[in-house]
Amino acid sequence: MLIVAGFFLASCAATKTEQGGDTDAASASASSSTGGEIKAGTQEDLIVNVGDRVFFEFDSSELTVDAQATLDAQAAWLMQYPDTNITVEGHADERGTREYNLALGDKRAFSVYSYLAQAGIDTNRMEYVSWGKERPEVIGSDETAYSQNRRGVTIVSN
Amino acid sequence: MIKKILIILFFSLNANSALEVTIAQGKVEPTPIAITQIFGADSDTARYGNTLRQIISNNLTNSGLFYTVNEDLYIQSDNLVEKVPRFEDWKLVKAQFLLSADVSKTDKGIRLRMRLYDVFNAKEIEKLQLTIPDEDLIRRVGHTVSDIVYERITGETGYFDTRIVYVSEIGPLDQRVKRLAIMDQDGHLDSHQFLTDGKNLVLTPRFAPNKQLITYMEYKNNLPRVYIYNLKTGEREIVGDFPGMTFAPRFSPDSQSVVMSFSDPNNAANSEIYLMDLNTRSRSRLTNDSGIDTSPSFSPDGEKIVFNSDRGGSPQLFTMDKNGNNIKRISKGRGVYGNPVWSPRGDLIAFTKLTQGNFHIGVMDVNGNNERVIVRDFALESPAWSPNGRYLIFHRQKRSNLDGTGGEVTIHFIDITGYNERVIPTPRDGSDPAWSPLL
Q1: Does the ipTM exceed 0.85?
Q2: Rounded to two decimals, what is the model's pTM?
Q3: How far does A73 lie from chain B, in Å, by closest CA?
Q4: Which of A27, A147, B102, B210 is deepest in the core (most CB within 10 A)?
């Protein structure tokens, strides 16, 4: 339960800077810290009950078997909540140049985006963006951090 | 290993007379220069004089090619702008060159007079008089005088009257706030200025070779695109307004075009290199391959482009003609290459290489031969050339830790011989440095 809350806070924080709105993140984290039920169709629901992210191998944008399973579940969830729009973020670890990692992050985000599109999600509901190595999930200069940072994250945008 | 090299220092007391200095292990023995007090008759001009002396002395020392003989040793303490120096006194303190100057107030502004002497040949080799309309220009005058001295004695083009644009960083490593910032090449705090407010993430600024423009990437409304910042007006203008991410921009040598990467959604978001003509706004695609193509950098004659591609499986360096033809792999060593930058002299390409857990910054010939590592550490990136092609600046980042500590990133200067590395001070952390042309 603690771990879940930690993940949620981290993802709220990410949403905060990237969307530039302080108030959303503040109110969202407030509601999560009070505990209680998870509202269906929200980011928290996606994180806890589906999984909001997939991980990539070093210097790869190919979806692993695990990643595909997660995305199948995400697609089913998105079908269930047809009013939900998403932005897919692609990220890289710090062991590459800034520019190469921007390119790699975009390929990763697009892999997730196109997999969901193939699974039947309307592309009008989806956007994608690369953050290269600019927004690590885990701070640290070791493989434990890197493997968490090579990721594609699905963010509910409405 | 750095080979033994021979550097020729030109002394211009007699036309074409040159002194050959053999430099073991690439290390240059700095030339001793004495700089007298820069004399001023009142408190203002004395203050300007002190500032100028400090700027000139720091610049020459930081180049690694000079050192300033300690003032306390000087035997003669006169103003030597009009008076002939007692060269024997300056020989005794082992000064090879001698600079003297004075500052006075005139109707038109602040007047600086400077004399440069060759002590061993007991001869004046340079004189200068200039009037500065405005006190704010003192620092630039100091840099200009430094350039004149450097050029007169070394025979190389100076680089002191230049600026560095970079990305100023602050905040936790997973929420970094990044701003464009600019400063004189010496990093002096008085010259430091922020160009953006930190609201949007900004990356990879680069100067136009002959205009007061910077091209860079910005996440405006969360859309990563290439922009141009006009240093005269402060205006920002999008140039990579494509239906997908544009990044890794650099100007062409004539400053009329920007070469950059575009990640096209209709091409599986695979990055290709495009050229955008800034006058017509027409764009042409230069690469077409299923691998990532990025980090393009023009040769100074505008005929060739070096770039980074993983088309062969791992990221390597390639060159191509300016129209995208004639693609050749040039990197030959083991490891993952990136960040290629063509030297303004045209003879070398600087790069980064990741191998055996460390980043390396090095230089190679334009065909990839004679690769030579200049500096190695855990995280090094963004090599950029001084306008005279003798030095590189880059950033160095420390390891970070799970508790959020570490990860400090600083801008460094180094001679391409691998000697004379030093930090260029910035008020916060700094990354992605780029050098202006000579102003």
Answers
A1: yes
A2: 0.89
A3: 23
A4: B102
